[in-house]
């Protein structure tokens, strides 16, 4: 997903490197580093809302659901947003290798802080994890691409293997951290995430020789003076962040999470529209490029709406699993977080089928537009909340519902994700004006942030004190997603023409 993937600089001899399942040995280094980082990220993420809403007697924070889900949305939104400066730091200052290393260390420190049984350090831990992830995530993804020359046909399958590592790591995280949460304690679960990241760092350092020459230097380094000014600016931002945190803890500044999330959602949307408009109107684009941007805009709208529903997995659906799902199977109580692993299992199982689907459709000269595929993905995801509408009606009657309701919802969400997520990334790379390709990927990543924050705000309406209102919440999310999906679907017939536009010769 990185917007900062640099061209490969390896020699043709690297094509002979088949040390990891026929791929360069460096892929194993990045595969396992990312696997353990995702273990720590998803393992901890599965705990957040549950920990924040748990009572003080349960050693939680006793936040309201609205507050907890707003914080969750801000955190997950910040993770994606901070990938933009993280990629810039690698490109201009440190190079990918060192940025990934320092990012992993910061992530590990964040999890260690979260593992401290003290409420006062909770937000410091969250900030550290978000900052570290912003440094590591975009750059390790970019380094995968740098393992291959531009002519190497193994690149796509290399990313498929790498993507498998992401899902294996997430399953491990859900299983390990979820078990510790239920059977040992919150802070032991946070500590398990720290151990996972530590394992990733150790293997990264020990196998660093596998990626020698890959991301070891900035691709577009600043001048010495520019570098000095950049570090001063970064230092000023960090100092300002530390000051705000200190003043908040001292009670001088009072931050209301729900209000803050609303303002941040508006700010990210304004930034997205402003930058998109700047490229459209001031980018010296020809008519064909402008029409492609209209087609890409539909994909961006679908993406933001999709993630606003999909990311209910860590908030309202997580709470539903904890409070209203019968988790006892054959005498064993299934940890709440384990339900979220359904998504990763379904991705591992279904990904090959969807890859074959698009290929076979293309062979039959059937090529749906990007926006049509994304609209279908959004609608399928939204139908998952129709399932939850019926499930929550049983819950409103005081009944515990069978696990299959949630698993069916996660299945539909995964099918929607496979229709939309890889297609949207492909759309950005194909429809963006070539001279703005990196910037357009950065703008597109903002749709993840916007969707995550909106998701947290929507989940704030999940009120355990008013169970009878929960069906209405899921129905609203479903109708909104289906409605937007239908609108995009109607525009997609025109968008197919826009996507096919080529540059017209000038007089």
From TrEMBL:
| UniProt-listed InterPro entries | Dipep/tripep_permease, MFS_dom, MFS_trans_sf, MFS_Transporters, POT_fam, PTR2_symporter_CS
Segments traversing the membrane: 62-87, 99-116, 122-140, 161-181, 187-208, 229-254, 260-281, 344-362, 374-396, 402-428, 440-461, 473-493
UniProt-listed Gene3D superfamilies: MFS general substrate transporter like domains
| Compartment(s) of residence | Cell membrane
Q: What PROSITE patterns has UniProt attached to this entry?
A: MFS, PTR2_1
Q: Name one GO cellular component term.
A: plasma membrane
Q: Which SUPFAM superfamilies match?
A: MFS general substrate transporter
Query: Which GO terms of the molecular function aspect are on file?
Result: peptide transmembrane transporter activity
Q: Which residues form the Major facilitator superfamily (MFS) profile domain?
A: 29-496
Database matches in Pfam families: PTR2 (PF00854)
- What keywords sit in the KW lines? Cell membrane, Membrane, Peptide transport, Protein transport, Transmembrane, Transmembrane helix, Transport
Give the membrane topology: Multi-pass membrane protein
Q: Which GO terms describe its biological process?
A: oligopeptide transport
Q: What is this protein called?
A: Major facilitator transporter
The protein's organism comes out as Pseudoalteromonas luteoviolacea H33
